[in-house]
Amino acid sequence: MSKVYIYDTTLRDGNQARGVSFSLEDKLMIAQRLDDFRIDYIEGGWPNPTNQTDMQFYPESRKLKLKHARIAAFGSTRRAKIKPEDDPGLSCLVETGAPIITIFGKSWDLHVKQILKTSLDENLRMVEDSVAYLKKHCEEVIYDAEHFFDGYKENPEYALKTLMAAAGGGADWIVLCDTNGGLLPMECDNIFREVKEKIDIHLGIHVHNDSGCAEANTLICVARGAEHVQGTINGIGERCGNANLCTIIPDIELKLNRKTVGKVQLTKLRELSLYVSEVANLHHNSRLPFVGESAFSHKGGAHIDGVLKERRSFEHIDPSSVGNERTYILSDQAGGSTIVEKLNTFIPGVNKKDPRVKGLLKQLKDMEGLGYQFEAAEASFRLLAYKAMGMYKEPFKFRGFRVIEEKRGEKAPYSEATIQVEADGILEHTAAEGDGPVNALDNAIRKALSRFYPQIRDIRLTDYKVLVINAKRGTAAKVRVLIESTDGQEIWGTVGVSENVIEASWLALIDSLNYKLMMTQVKKKKKR
What we know:
Layout (H helix, E strand, L loop, with lengths): L4 E4 L15 H13 L4 E5 L6 H10 L8 E7 L11 H8 L4 E7 L2 H8 L3 H16 L4 E7 L1 H7 L1 H14 L3 E6 L6 H14 L4 E5 L6 H10 L4 E4 L13 H11 L7 H4 L2 H11 L17 E2 L2 H9 L17 E2 L7 H9 L10 H16 L7 H11 L8 E10 L7 E10 L2 E9 L2 H13 L10 E9 L10 E8 L4 E8 L2 H27 L1
Parallel strand pairs: 1-2, 1-8, 2-3, 3-4, 4-5, 5-6, 6-7, 7-8, 9-10
Antiparallel strand pairs: 11-12, 12-13, 14-15, 15-16
Helix pairs in contact: 1-2, 1-12, 5-7, 6-7, 8-9, 9-10, 16-18, 17-18
């Protein structure tokens, strides 16, 4: 099985995504996780005097003691009409001490003339001189041919000359880039094949996703002989993002039968995907292929029936191969067989004839009649299941709460929550402020319980939704509150229903904390 080298640019390209801003500590933590996952190259950023975070990353990264990955510094070719040794950008790259240096240069004559405003010949010299200079100062030089596909479509002869210039300078890899992300798979296939026939050097691919084809284009190039793939975790990046390594890596390993990180590491893929979303402070996309929460979920009807009889009928791979799991979504379509199959995923050995299962099914139907839904509230369902099976002991008892909302003049509203809970026979009476009543309740309950259960401090809410169930009743309508929580390792959803939005929120909050405490106990028992 031939190897395809994975080059991660999450810390640079990913950092250019809207809403993402990695600190130095964030970058170092992600780099460590990428190394643990056995990514081959980690691009740390573009070091220059105006970006102190990227400048500091390289000396700090040497303290990580990476076991597999090699760090790459990123920059551009020298400026026009200046010697490489006099170019401040190239000097910054050399000063990082990075073993790998990646530089981009112009392949599209439009950019040479209109953006750089220099001659086509000078641009060729800039490429070759820069690569040759950097080869003297690092282990490996990777040349990113920026806008290559657009350039090739308009002037193929010149675009190929830029690649030959990089090869002449001694580049170890030449990476063809679809920088604008507008390339379609048919075009990508034709152009990559033509280049492969005309240039004898190790080729890579770097694709953006503006036409929604980043992963498809990348895989086509791998199938045609690309040995180096660039992308980001979860596909984060500028505009519509970069090629998603969380899709590409399993496709290469499991579908193309080529080696990347290895099948053992591949089982940690979902964990890595969740981790990067958490550090980036982004909502994890549940519909991502392979790593999304919905990737292997089935809801009633023929799909569940098919999967129960033969997994392959509705699943293209085994979910566990990428660290994910199969889920059966509970709804009014669910029957006893669905409940039993779902229970067996976390309580093995459950029998359909067990009266406790029948009781749980009835309870679920009754709760759905009241407005509950468990499709996005797996944690609330698991709590119900453990209770129904007699396997759950409440870690604390709720005694009461009070919420104060005050608004005076033009000042912002003031929210304070007071709660009473009992844990280990001790009555805890605590108050906390918050940005609104729900946040105040969340702060108060965690403040009260963290002395008994320190792991609660790891939990934070990532999403909060309110849905009016019977809108015709106006302000007296019943509402369903869905809360999504995370501890940095797992994401779970809980639900609460009431005519009072604060009570519905409270019910969902309590379920969230109880689920975390329950799973902590379950994991401890499994280790014994």
